[in-house]
Structures are given as C-alpha cells and as structure tokens.
Design a protein that fits this description.
It is built from 14 helices and nine strands. It is α/β, with parallel strands linked by helices and 316 residues long. The protein has a domain of 92 residues: Helicase, Ruva Protein, domain 3, CATH 1.10.8. Strand 3 and strand 4 form a beta hairpin. Helix 2 crosses helix 12, helix 10 crosses helix 12 and helix 13 runs antiparallel to helix 14.
C-alpha cells in the first residue's frame, strides 16, 4: 500500500480514496450505497453511528465491512439483559504476587466496537458506554485508561416495539452523530443477494483499503473543508427552526449544530469538494437530527417531521 503523500490534499484525490472504501463495502451490502456513504461520513467526522432496523437487514455486516475496509481493530459485544458494565469496560483483579489490583481491559478497548442490539441491555449497562463515546477513555477505580485511536462505536438497535428492548436515554442518543436505517433491498439487489456468494465468505475475502495514516489524513481533511458564512447561516436557521417548532418537545442543542456541520463537511469530501454546500447539509440532516428531536405528539413519524422542517427553511 502506497504511503499517503503530504501533498495529497485535493478533494478529488481524497474522494477517490473514499469511493474505493464505499465500493468495497457496497459489495457486501447490496443496494445500500447511500447507507454505506452515510456511515463512512459519520466515521470520517469522528462520530459514532447508530443503526436501527429489524434483525437480518445487514446492520452487523455493515459494521464488519467498515472495519475490514478501513483496516481497523474490531470487537463485537452482544448486548443482553444480563450484561454488566464490567463486561464492556473491564475489571480490576487482585494479583496476590504483587498484592495490588491490575486492570484487565474489556472489549471496548478496540478501534471499532460493534455494540450489537444495544437496546436489549439495561439502562445502567447502556450508560457504561457514555464516557467511552464522549471522552474516548475509561475510568476504573479512579484510574483513567485511554482508548485506542481512532475509536468508533457502531451500535445496532432493534425497533422499540420489539419485546425485550429498553429505550435509549436522550443522553445516550445524543452521543451518536448519526442514526440510520437499512431498509429492505429492492428486487434486483435482493435477487443478486440470493444468487451470490455467502456474505461471510465475501467479508473474509475483503482486504483493507486504508491504513491508519490514510484514515487520519481523511479525518484531518474533513476538518479543513470550508464552510462559508452563508452556509453557517443556513445551519443556524435550521437549528433555530427546530427550537421554534411546536412539533418537537425541544429543539437542537449547540452540540447537535456542531454534529450537523461536521457531517456535512464529511459528505462534501465524499463528493469530491473542498467546500460545504446546502445540499450537503440537507443530505445528512435527517440522519443527524431525527434522533435528537422527540416529537411533541405521537402518530407522526419523526422522519416526516424532520423532512418537513428542512423543507420549511429557505436556503440563504
């Protein structure tokens, strides 16, 4: 694999790298290029991703594929009702020979953590991830342990109506930069899936497309994508509209505004541009905003409400 030149800062060069990743992962998740693109934008913006959908829709395969294509260390935790925080974070065990306690890291100490079926664990266990997701560290017995760099959480969640699920608290939801769903494949993609090779075999044959240096360069490049004052006006108008709307119990926080801008920058990079356009904001806004805006009344999809909100705000 060729080293990434320090001079490779052109948006189209960086876009070519990301398109290679998208193509590799899309070969596993047929007919879901947009979801793959959103997931990659989320990770390039240094955010965490929540995927909500029915079992068997490819959520776990997407997480595995991203880890393989990005060359990241990968661990998976199956969340259940009897899972304890120590099963995630690790535990200090007494060492008789040294007469002290030694911390044994849990599976959270990896670069890409798949938190599978996160909402099947109790709220206490769900909350064990909060410090790790926000501070990228774990504190045990008063000692802080840094997590690997980079560190991403890709969590899957079953629909809330399913038996044995606990709703994620708002503080937990807010730690996810994006929430996406997979959806059913169209007929042609499903036919190709039925006729093709087993997804696990394809996953085993997937080689890394990036290494740590290239991934770090892409993340740095996202931060350099230009956002003009007029674009910032548009982001602020969306935030203000969410706070004025009576259709939500509360509006977007300042952190949500930063998340929206960061995701839009990543989307612009994937498109091969060095500046953010309003179309980039609109492309990522539903995935960034919907899980942060509780509807004031039931019966209407929050996705529909967020789409209506976006359409109600004129582009400057």
């Amino acid at each position: 694999m060729k080293p990434l030149s320090q001079n490779v800062a052109r948006a189209d060069d960086l876009s070519a790298l990301t398109n290679t990743v998208i193509g590799a992962v899309s070969g596993l998740i047929l007919g879901k290029e947009r979801q793959v693109r959103l997931a990659l934008a989320c990770l390039l913006a240094r955010g965490h991703l929540l995927i909500e959908d029915l079992p068997g829709m490819g959520k776990t395969t997407l997480a595995h594929g991203l880890a393989r294509a990005l060359g990241l260390g990968f661990r998976r935790i199956q969340f259940t009702s009897d899972l304890l925080p120590a099963d995630i974070l690790g535990v200090s065990i007494y060492q008789p020979e040294t007469r002290d306690f030694r911390f044994h890291p849990g599976p959270v100490f990896t670069q890409l953590l798949l938190a599978d079926e996160l909402n099947r664990a109790t709220p206490k266990t769900q909350g064990a991830l909060l410090e790790a997701m926000e501070e990228r560290q774990v504190t045990s017995d008063g000692v802080t342990h840094a997590l690997p760099e980079p560190f991403f959480v890709v969590a899957t969640q079953n629909p809330r109506h399913q038996i044995g699920t606990y709703p994620l608290p708002e503080s937990q939801l807010d730690r996810f930069l994006m929430r996406i769903d997979m959806g059913y494949p169209d007929r042609s993609a499903e036919r190709e899936l039925l006729k093709g090779r087993d997804r696990r075999e394809l996953l085993d044959s997937l080689s890394p497309v990036l290494d740590g240096a290239r991934l770090a360069a892409l993340q740095h490049a996202v931060n350099q994508i230009h956002a003009a004052d007029a674009l910032l006006d548009y982001v602020q108008d969306l935030i203000a509209a969410s706070r004025r709307s009576a259709r939500f119990t509360h509006g977007l926080s300042p952190r949500a505004g930063l998340a929206l801008l960061g995701a839009a920058r990543a989307w612009a990079l994937l498109a091969g541009r060095n500046m953010v356009l309003p179309e980039d904001v609109q492309a990522v806004a539903p995935s960034v905003m919907a899980h942060r805006l509780p509807p004031a009344e039931g019966g209407v999809s929050v996705g529909v409400l967020v789409t209506d909100l976006i359409h109600s705000v004129p582009i400057p």
